[in-house]
Design a protein that fits this description.
The complex is a heterodimer of chains A (about 210) and B (about 270). With about 210 residues, chain A is mainly α. Chain A has eleven helices and no strands. With about 270 residues, chain B is mostly helical. The chains are: A mainly alpha (about 210), B mainly alpha (about 270).
Chain lengths: ~210, ~270
């Protein structure tokens, strides 16, 4: 499967990035949506839905819920598009909405106490597995290992790690999405990397230990 | 640059977030220091491993269909909102006009010169004036099927975004159920998605209902309590439900016009914030 990252979102404005770039740059699409062109919003959805659903999935670790929250993100984006500032990058703005939607859902889940054992379960499942060198890990196993290691991180560190390492956002973009200061996000990112390393290194074999 | 200092900058170096000056210093150090070079190689390997991460997640076409369904009524809502504003302005104008005329009339009465014998009128107990009863304009209350959804239109205490969002999601689920294609020939209907969504909304509904109760928001609490039987029924459907079971729920949704009612509640909630 092709892996989409925010870098791909940054193609806007580059010659030949998309067919019909002139009229379909993100800024043009936003203008068209504000003028009531729903086809333009469809294009925005097609362009950004995969990074958005991936990001939400990283945050909530639940596929059907990620789909539902992606839907919610785009509905909110459509309704708020007129309020979007001209100097804001569409991808950053969408990730900001997605982050809020995911956070509300996580808090509702904690209050409902239905998924609070998610982190413990992941750790338990991992510790039940026998260490396998990284070369021996199939892609599927590696995906599962990363997914399970990500789930128990606290919300802030998971958020920063996801945006930086998995979606390659810049510090500036992360600060815009999360509202965190650069100093805080650097600290959270360092903690997240160390924690992920601690969880993954027993399974990742030679060449990985730091 | 010392190794200790260099190690502290390696992550930012890898992230491409260092200033040009620091970047040059780290690069120069990495060439000469094998130990720091190993650290950086390990970090790079780690980064490459995360770059291989594939969530195996796709966006199903149904997501766009549901978004399209949800954003379509916004236009109706906006136009409805404008009509409400115009109506409110007309009523306000009439109201202010009435007040103005009444005050003018009163002023006219008080400035009429009294005949001399009425100079003593202030010592006489005045006979009460016969007042014309004021007719109040009342919005007709739409009655829903009692016991399913409360028809009280005074849901003015929905002031938190979470409840508004929840009502919106519930509204979309019910709309989706209402529009669910069930034909005579169907042996079973796949309601896996709607069922799972209903289970989640039910959990959310219970939490929000309790919160509303604790905050003494009784109309909101009643509204949420009224939604629960429907959510429970949808959540209890088997993944592949019998068409008649789905049809019964569809009919309940249609009969009670819940979708339309929720639109109104949601809009009231949105406007109240």
């Amino acid at each position: 499967m092709k892996r989409l990252t925010v870098e791909e979102l940054n193609l806007e404005g580059q010659p030949g990035a998309f067919a019909g770039t002139l009229m379909n740059s993100s800024a043009d699409l936003v203008t068209r949506v504000c003028q009531g062109d729903s086809d333009a919003f469809r294009l925005i959805f097609e362009r950004y839905s995969r990074p958005v659903i991936s990001f939400i999935f990283d945050m909530v670790n639940d596929r059907p819920l990620a789909e539902e929250l992606t839907q919610e993100t785009f509905v909110r984006a459509y309704r708020a598009m007129r309020t979007m500032r001209a100097d804001t990058k569409l991808s950053t703005w969408l990730f900001g909405i997605a982050r809020n939607v995911a956070r509300e859902s996580l808090r509702a889940r904690v209050r409902a106490s239905s998924h609070v054992d998610l982190a413990d379960k992941s750790v338990m499942d991992l510790s039940d597995n026998k260490p396998v060198p990284v070369e021996g890990l199939l892609n599927k196993e590696l995906n599962e290992l990363i997914r399970r290691s990500l789930a128990p991180l606290d919300e802030d560190t998971r958020l920063v790690f996801t945006l930086k390492v998995l979606h390659q956002c810049s510090y500036e973009e992360i600060a815009a999405i999360t509202g965190f200061s650069i100093a805080k996000l650097k600290t959270d990112l360092h903690r997240a990397r160390a924690e992920m390393r601690r969880r993954i290194s027993p399974y990742a074999g030679v060449g990985y230990e730091v | 640059m010392k190794c200790e200092e260099n190690i502290g900058l390696l992550e930012e170096y890898l992230d491409g977030e260092l200033s040009a000056e620091d970047q040059n210093e780290v690069s120069a150090h990495l060439i000469t220091c094998a130990s720091c070079g190993d650290e950086f190689a390990a970090l790079t390997a780690e980064q490459e491993m995360f770059a291989r991460y594939d969530r195996e997640i796709e966006v199903s076409p149904a997501v766009w269909n549901r978004i399209a369904e949800q954003i379509a009524p916004v236009e109706e809502t906006i136009s409805y909102g404008w009509w409400m504003k115009i109506a409110a302005m007309v009523i306000l104008t009439i109201g202010l006009g009435s007040v103005y005329f009444l005050s003018r009339e009163k002023e006219a009465i008080t400035t009429i010169p009294r005949p001399p014998e009425q100079e003593f009128a202030r010592f006489i107990i005045p006979t009460p004036e016969k007042k014309t009863p004021i007719k109040r304009l009342r919005k007709p209350i739409v009655k829903d099927n009692p016991g399913v959804l409360s028809s009280d239109l005074a849901y003015l205490d929905i002031d938190d975004q979470e409840t508004v969002n929840h009502l919106e999601k519930t509204q979309n689920l019910l709309r989706s159920i209402r529009n669910f294609p069930v034909s005579e020939g169907d042996e079973e209907v796949d309601v896996t998605y709607d069922k799972a969504l209903s289970q989640r909304l039910l959990n959310e509904n219970v939490v929000l209902r309790r919160e509303a109760e604790m905050k003494a928001k009784f109309p909101t609490k009643t509204l949420l309590a009224d939604l629960e039987p429907l959510l429970i029924d949808i959540a209890n459907l088997p993944d592949h439900a019998r068409p008649e079971d789905v049809r019964v729920i569809k009919e309940r949704v249609e009969k009670t016009e819940i979708v339309a009612a929720l639109t109104e509640y949601r809009d009231r909630g949105t406007h109240n914030r």
